[in-house]
């Protein structure tokens, strides 16, 4: 009989231990072999000057290329592509908030988030892009080599081709798959949104185009400690790297059973409905807002951009209210770093539950929610002294759909016990276990993947 871990595992690459060792070597290369960090910052500043954005807020009813459907009220693109803003009717019978309706982005197409890697002087480097997005609060951020929706890379917008796309769509003898997995995105704002997270190694020469540069993993990890430099799409791809350290198979079976039990235990009913049927939200032609003034707004923007495939366009965006907290409690168990993971339900997930950080919330939203909805362990995160804070940084979420969506990512060392009978939705999971789960789809959510990338930047190889 084949055990659950074996059934889930993808076919191993021929030299999986070797790639893990090469990743570790790149992590330890803090100065890089192509350009130093000082030179990178000069290059990045020059890119920011060339690749500008001018984002003007405009009424939703005046978005060029978009229309409000006369029957449903859904906001749709004239091409029928890209995405739509629809309504979602959510029912969670056993939750503190058992039902609500909300606007949500429906983007069924699967995009590509890909990082090209290549050795220089025996050290793996990542080809990173200085990319501007309309929702970025600071313009240019460090992005994957390719970051494109299907509508973008099939050129529905009639813009320029996406650079380096062929490395991720075509196979050849000089290209090797390091990681290739579909992963979810924000389940509170997207309905069943997935992207293909890819890392492809190439051995042949690669022309470095304007706006791209080679960085070692050690350099990228250093930049993860600078405020709002490495974007969300880069973080999620980096989290899928096959770091060394295979978890114990019996513990993996137990973890998978716990996730399956959580998915079975939670009844979630999330049905798409016409946008004009959502309740508790106000729409005035300019924007869509919750009547409490909390959660998020749906706004319209007119974008002029340099360094993009298209120089001008309009679109709707989600604008969160307030700065969120993405907090992870961590501790060492038998010398191995463990994270307190939350088996979290979000209405937009494909499979009910994904592993989330210990805390994932915008604290001020809870002033209009029942006390039972308040996230456990938030006080442990926010009240931590400097000695217990291992990582603390402000990072943006995806700037292509979200306007100035900012979270405080923080990892806090703790010694607290978490009785499973009291907190059945929480569990200590080792970093090697999370790395193993990230080889598969829909186990670890986008916020957790971001903070896993940040934890790898702290730990190097010491915890594996």
From TrEMBL:
Q: Which Gene3D superfamilies match?
A: EvaA sugar 2,3-dehydratase subunit (3.90.79.40)
Give the organism, scientific name. Answer: Amycolatopsis bullii
Domain dTDP-4-dehydro-6-deoxy-alpha-D-glucopyranose 2,3-dehydratase positions: 38-241, 253-455
Taxonomic lineage from the root: Bacteria, Bacillati, Actinomycetota, Actinomycetes, Pseudonocardiales
Protein name per UniProt: NDP-hexose 2,3-dehydratase
Q: Which InterPro entries match?
A: EvaA-like, EvaA-like_sf
């Amino acid at each position: 009989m084949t055990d659950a871990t074996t059934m889930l595992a993808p076919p191993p690459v021929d030299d999986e231990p070797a790639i893990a060792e090469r990743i570790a070597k790149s992590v330890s290369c803090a100065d890089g072999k192509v350009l130093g960090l000082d030179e990178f910052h000069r290059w990045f500043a020059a890119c920011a000057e060339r690749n500008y954005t001018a984002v003007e807020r405009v009424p939703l009813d005046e978005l060029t290329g978009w229309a409000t459907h006369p029957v449903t009220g859904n906001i749709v693109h004239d091409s029928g592509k890209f995405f739509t803003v629809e309504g979602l009717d959510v029912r969670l019978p056993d939750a503190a908030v058992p039902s609500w309706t909300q606007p949500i982005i429906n983007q069924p197409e699967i995009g590509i988030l890909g990082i090209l890697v290549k050795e220089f002087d025996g050290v793996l480097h990542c080809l990173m892009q200085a990319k501007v997005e309309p929702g970025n609060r600071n313009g240019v951020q460090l992005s994957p080599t390719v970051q494109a929706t299907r509508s973008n890379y099939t050129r529905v917008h009639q813009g320029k081709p996406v650079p380096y796309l062929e490395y991720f769509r075509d196979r050849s003898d000089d290209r090797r798959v390091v990681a290739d997995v579909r992963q979810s995105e924000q389940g509170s704002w997207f309905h069943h949104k997935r992207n293909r997270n890819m890392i492809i190694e190439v051995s042949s020469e690669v022309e470095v185009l304007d706006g791209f540069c080679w960085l070692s993993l050690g350099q990228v990890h250093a930049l993860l400690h600078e405020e709002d430099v490495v974007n969300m799409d880069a973080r999620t791809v980096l989290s899928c790297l096959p770091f060394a350290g295979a978890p114990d198979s019996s513990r993996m079976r137990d973890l998978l059973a716990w996730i399956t039990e959580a998915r079975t235990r939670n009844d979630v009913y999330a049905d798409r409905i016409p946008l004009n049927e959502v309740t508790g939200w106000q729409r005035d032609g300019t924007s869509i807002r919750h009547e409490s003034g909390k959660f998020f707004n749906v706004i319209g923007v007119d974008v002029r951009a340099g360094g993009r495939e298209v120089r001008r366009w309009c679109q709707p965006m989600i604008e969160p209210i307030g700065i969120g907290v993405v907090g992870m409690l961590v501790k060492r168990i038998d010398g191995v770093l463990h994270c307190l993971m939350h088996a979290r339900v979000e209405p937009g997930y494909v499979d009910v539950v994904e592993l989330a950080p210990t805390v994932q919330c915008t604290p001020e939203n809870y002033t209009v929610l029942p006390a039972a909805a308040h996230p456990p362990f938030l006080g442990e995160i926010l009240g931590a002294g400097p000695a217990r804070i291992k990582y603390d940084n402000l990072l943006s979420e995806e700037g292509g759909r979200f306007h100035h969506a900012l979270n405080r990512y923080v990892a806090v060392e703790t010694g607290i016990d978490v009785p499973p009978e009291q907190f059945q939705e929480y569990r200590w999971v080792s970093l090697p276990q999370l790395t193993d789960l990230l080889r598969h789809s829909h186990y670890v959510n986008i916020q957790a993947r971001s903070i896993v990338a940040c934890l790898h930047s702290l730990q190097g190889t010491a915890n594996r």
